[in-house]
């Protein structure tokens, strides 16, 4: 079969164009080889798309995310089957892919999964996931119910923070000679241990209560409100601790002042503007939020988070406070939460667990003495947090059963504990061995929450709140 004579015209044109392009390409390359460029600047960092020691950083970040998401889903199902929240599986997945297991079995595989020069990129994704998740938690918080329980929330928050903080500092008297060194002042060390014992994992607690369908009950809202308030105060204390560690108390006190002004500005200025925006959306949009609306809300999250990060209080709480300003029953809150929850919970938040897992080496606990010390840390931390919250709950009118349930909820350390520990490790105040012990403490106390809540608040007694 022969082509019509006119059919050769476009074929010849295409072939000629390709040949001409190849010719120009070769000429450019030939001439380019004669050119020279200035040497690279000293201190130039490796970009996400450029090569690291073992390949492209983007490749390894995507590989690590795929691995932790896949393993996290499998372990999440397994932990759910035994009555634990799925988030425990995600945390354990990150630890197993780090030096605690994969690094011991095959260091080369762990290094290939995420080399050190690419870990920083995963850390940025991890922080972004935590910020957006905290925003969703604030978005779903019933602030009206929290206000109605203000007396109980404030008392539980205060007792659940101050008591464990003092106990943690006393615990440091035992830990400092064993797990620190002379280059770390005892004051810095003891303050970090106090914060680590006192803090509550507000985001993880929120996930546990949501999975247990306790997030809308009075006891659940009380615990969430107390945990949120305690963590805001804890972050201010952490600013002081970091200032002490860096020998900059003036900066720490300035951070607390700016944090107070920031919260006041959000309540007095930003909140009315947010309420007006919500009303406009309720009247003009009968369906779910548009892409433009979602973008506007996310912009607000980032700006407020940027502000709190700039003043020295973690960006997480700026995101949470902005979410809490939006009425949780509004169509805007429900629509934004629905659109963001899956992407954040499935893709972004597991990055934080992967990043922390890569820094945790359970193998550092080598002797019986190490494990006894770890058990002692877990026991003291749990008793201090549980006892303080239990007594405060009972003194503010809750029954013994629900007071105990609130005490159990407040002992959940999880995500916030990991953030504090990472900061302490970065500053050199906490040693890698103590870091591993504290990670175990965060896991154990978090894993105890769901089983104890099943005993204290069975489904048929869940409405018995007082």
Low-pLDDT residue intervals, each spanning 5 or more residues: 43-50, 460-466
Q: What letter string, H or E per element, gives the SSE order?
A: HEEHHHHHHHHHHHHHHHHHH
Largest sheet: 2 strands, antiparallel
Read across the widest sheet, the strand sequence of neighbours is 1-2
* Total individual domains: 1
**CATH fold-level label:** Na+/H+ antiporter like fold
At the first level of CATH, the class is Mainly Alpha
Query: What is the first-to-last residue Cα distance?
Result: 90 Å
Cα gyration radius (Å): 26 Å
- How much strand content do the residues show? under 5%
Verbal overview:
This protein has 19 helices and 2 strands. It is mainly alpha-helical. A hairpin with a 2-residue loop joins strand 1 and strand 2 (55-56). Mean pLDDT is 78; it is low at 43-50 and 460-466. The longest helix has 36 residues, at 249-284. The chain is globular and about 95 Å long. It has one domain (54-461): Na+/H+ antiporter like fold, CATH 1.20.1530.20.
Features of the shown structure:
disordered C terminus; two-stranded antiparallel ribbon; globular; mainly alpha; Na+/H+ antiporter like fold; 466 residues
